[in-house]
Structures are given as C-alpha cells and as structure tokens.
Amino acid sequence: MRSSWSVLALVLVAGAVVIPSLFRQPASLTVYCAHDAIFADDIIRLFEKRSGIAVEVRYDEEANKSLGLTNLLIAEKDRPRCDVFWNNQTLGTIRLMDHGVLAPFKGTGYERIPSPFKDVGGHWTGFAARMRVFIVNSEQLTATEEEVAELLASESLNTVAIAIPLYGTTLTHYSVLAAEMGLEELKKWHHSLQARGIREARGNGSVKDLVAEGACALGFTDTDDVFVAMDQGKPVKMLPIRTTAGKTIVIPNSVAMIRGCQHPDAAQKFIDFLLSAEVELLLAQSASRQIPLGDVDRSRLPDSVQELMNWAGQGVEMEAAAQLNDSVLEWLSGEYVQQ
After folding, report:
1. What is the bridge-based pairing of β-strands 54-58 and 28-33?
2. Domain locations in the chain?
3. Is 322 helix (H, G, I), strand (E, B) or coil?
4. For the segment 81-120, what is each residue's pLDDT rounded down to a tens digit?
5. What is the CATH number of domain 28-129+252-312?
6. Please, which contacts does 4-8 make with residues 24 or more away whose CB atoms are closer than 8 Å?
C-alpha cells in the first residue's frame, strides 16, 4: 500500500510539472501601430515567424491615427495594455516620453541608428524615414523649385492642396515651421493659404489623389504617397519641401517600449528587430520606399531611394519642433473646432 501511494505521489508531482507546460500560453506581444497596415503587417508577421512570439496589433484610421494612438497611450498610462508603440513619426512619440509613458531601452538596434534620430536616454528610436515633398502634376507644371515657389506666392491657390494640419505629418510640418518662424508667423502663413483658396483635404492620400487626377497642380504630401501615384502610372513628380533655412523635413518612423508593459522581454526583441538593417531594407524596397537611417547595403536600394537619401542628409533637427508640437496642436484645434 505504501508503495502504491509513493507511485501515485510521483505521478501527481510529474503531472503538476507537465500539465501546465502543455497548456502554457505562447509568448505574446501587443503593438499599437500608426504605420500603414499594408506595409507594417508583413514586417510584424515575419517577426512572429522568426521569434515564435504572437503579436496582437492595434491599427487606427488614416486621418488621425498617430494622434489617436498617442492620446490612447496617455490615457492608459497607469494601466498599460500596449507593449510597443510603432509610430509613423517622432513628435508624438516625444510627447509620450514627456508624459512619462515610455521606458528606456538601448539594444542592438538602438546602437546602429545615428544620434540625430534617437533619444539620448533610449526612450525612442527612429528608423525608415519619409520626407515631406511637393507632389506635382507634370502635365500642368514643369516641376521646378522656381515654378513651385511662384505658384505658392500667387494670389490664388485653388490648384494647390494640403491635408488638414491637425494630424500626422502635416502637423509635424507645421511644428517644424513654428520652430523656425515662430508661432505667430506660422498663423499668418496658414491664414494666408486659406485666404487665397488652398484646398484642404482629409489626409495626405487625398492630396495625392487630387494632384494625380489633375484636379490640382500641386500638393503638400509625403514621399510614400507620391510613390503610390507613380506606381499607378499617374503623371506626377516630386520636389523636396524646404524650410526658409533651406532644410528638408525628414520624418522617421519611431519605436518605443511602454513603461510598465506586460511583456518587456518580447518588446525588446521586437524593437531590435524593427531597428535592424534587414527591416530598413525591406521598407526601402517596399512600395513606400522608406529611407534607411542606419547603415545598409546601398547596392540593394532602389534608385529612387538613393536620391531621397541625398535629400534626407539636409534634414532639419526636430527637437525644437517637438517642444512646440502641443502649442501648435492647441492652436489648430481651436481653428478647426470654430469652423
């Protein structure tokens, strides 16, 4: 009898070890992503395949996705549901850092990104950039910087389009201008555009459509939107948007770990993966043709990205723009609520 009880005890002990291992949930990760799902999803699924870590992704709508996710992360600060935030720009991520939402992490990916594109404390890191550019209908304009400047100085802007600047990269654009010219001068410039009849669209994609279809001759947008139109065979070209100081506006993606997140080990693995040369090359070779920020094998880059890298080398620093982002957003919110 004693022998039988000993055997039973051993079986129960073994079961206590084996059974939980059979039903243990696989490692998981929650990512909030403001980058376009059409480009981000393949990257995320490749990480799942390589790591064995299941990823749940929350995307948001085109018009206000980066702002909406940023506000959600601030609201969830004390009880975070998200592990990693993949933003499609940097100013909103810096805002999260200022609100104490982000946790520092300096992994192998952080080390390969140049210092102008990351937080010195490791709270966020940039990668795979876009640029603010003019999209030009080449059947209506010859696409020279002089011609564009002449049109923008004209009395009528009814053939020019810009996205409502409450969101995304147009908000970043406005914050850069505020840092360079001052908020009051930015207000005058904005009101001048409106007074001369500029067409305000819901987003950069809508700006692209207006120019690509010939409803407008010129638009303010991003490089990835122009490439969409080019790939569709539309008669469009692009020129870099320059500040009054002659700088271009380079807008990297950014990635950050959320303070107090539930899966920090998986989060760190995902961040290092996103910041790898492999992922920067994949995004450069994708339809969005994003600009690598770390060292990559340049022979594997499309010719169009090679040209963008030359323009990106003239990019404006973003620190001052980040400090004015909230002030610019507060002013613009008042402008558009009143309309």
Report:
1. parallel
2. 28-129+252-312, 130-249+322-337
3. helix
4. 999 999 999 998 999 999 999 999 999 999 999 988 999 9
5. 3.40.190.10
6. none
